[in-house]
Hints:
Layout: E1 31-38, H1 39-45, E2 60-68, H2 85-90, H3 98-107, H4 116-128, H5 134-137, E3 143-145, H6 147-157, E4 166-170, E5 178-185, H7 196-199, E6 208-210
Antiparallel strand pairs: 1-2, 1-5, 3-6, 4-5
Amino acid sequence: MAVVCLSMAGPALAHRHRDSRGAAPAGEFSYYLLSLSWSPTFCARSPASEECRGPTRHGFVVHGLWPQRERGRLEYCGARERVPARVAQGVLDLMPARKLVFHEWKAHGSCSGLRPEAYFDLLRRAAQRVAIPRSFANARLAQSASPLRVEGDFMRANPALPTRGLFAVCSRGPDAQLTEVRICMDRGLAPRMCSASALAGRCRAPLIRVPAAR
């Protein structure tokens, strides 16, 4: 699959992490949620972020791999290990900003029960299992679509995904825009249905704007 890269820094991280937190020991969770962010929406809000500078055109980019419980996800489980420099360097093709790498480890990887090397290897393998639909692979023109169409495009491109195995996320307000697509996988990275608590973040707007790739 061709998944483009993502970077975030400073306050820009906040609007991509609005779901509820739940404290629990690392490794005690049910499944993973792979988050792919629609970079043009993010960059319209945070143009100074590293992700948004330079000539590279980004569409869907890897945001993170989040351990989930059946009721809520885990965050900030107390990372005692730091991400080694060589590991951070090795994932820059997916996350070309070290601040994002360190943040994802602290916020989510720390809850996986894995060491940094294993966590980021798992993140890469999860991303490689998802095909980006053609309708978004070269989206150089802005478009409007229903969340159901976005989800349907992903389902057709990834026929192994079960019903309710993924969902679109959008911004709030009258000018709702696509922000992410989230895909649920079991701990072995096989597709599975998302829990009701995860689906609570599903976009409810009838129609959303999909900004063009930069």
